[in-house]
Amino acid sequence: MAWSAQGDLLVSLPRRGQVVGLRDTSGTGQADRRWVVADGLNLPHGLAFRDPGTLYVAETGRILRFRYDPEAGKASQPEVVVPDIPSGGGHWTRTIAFGPDGNVYVSIGSSCNVCLERDPRRAAVVRYRPD
Question: What confidence score (pLDDT) does residue 33 get?
């Protein structure tokens, strides 16, 4: 989940391959509007804004950067910024966040519950430049 500059809550729906937006237009504290922000994704999970117009989405095997229109609540022009993240396995979710150093940090789960990983990026938090 991630909050937009407009106060909308963006939520990933991994099995649907979507990011959706939720808005409380009536001020009741409950979302009364829902729409698709981005679609056709491969198990999206982590969401992070670098600035109000740039949305990062962590799929199971890569990180995408979208232009985000905060007024319309739509993501467009996806660009792969981190390809080839180890994917699959029992721990396929990828959580992302920006650090104070401006880099993007992504958690990459292990491929199993009890094993020795061959890829050092598994069962770790890895730092990438956001470009």
Answer: 94
